[in-house]
Structure formats: C-alpha cells, structure tokens
Input
Amino acid sequence: MRMQTAAATTTSEAGRERTAAIARALADPKRLCVLERLADGERSVSDLSREVGCQVPNMSQHLSVLRTAGIVVSRRDGNTIFYRLADQQVLEVYRLLRQVAG
Output
C-alpha cells in the first residue's frame, strides 16, 4: 500500500474556504430540496418555487446562494430564468451527506 505524503493531502487555505462556502450553501433543507429537483434537469424559478413549496422571492434567494457557491448555473429565456446543476458531482456529495446523517 502506498502512503500519501502530507503535501498530497493538504488543502490550501483558498481550497478550504471554497469547500466551506459550498458546505454553507448546502446547509439548508430547502436548498437540498432544490438539488433534488434539479437532479432531474433544468427548472425555472417559478417551477422550483412551486415544487419546493416556497415563495418566489425566497426561492430566488436560495438560488442566489447556490449560484454564488458555484453549485448551480442559470440562463435567461425572455423573462424566465432557468437553473441547472453546474456539476452532477454535487449529487454524490449530497448522497454522502445523507449517508453520514444516517
């Protein structure tokens, strides 16, 4: 078995900050529900609001947090804004969190 060096497992301060920002963004049940909905594909803000059971202004705030963390990306089509996952790997992170939570 090959041993990893300390340098190979050490994360930079910037990397830890980025990881913490993502963890904070995921630390809300409504935002986790958004991830579940986006796992099935792109959704509009109004669709997400209806499916998650949250007012549009609140949904927009949740999506802003997820977008700032780089978890979702958006596109505009006329007056409608659509969101999708930036990277499908976030679903694996969510799966692991659910496992740890029991």
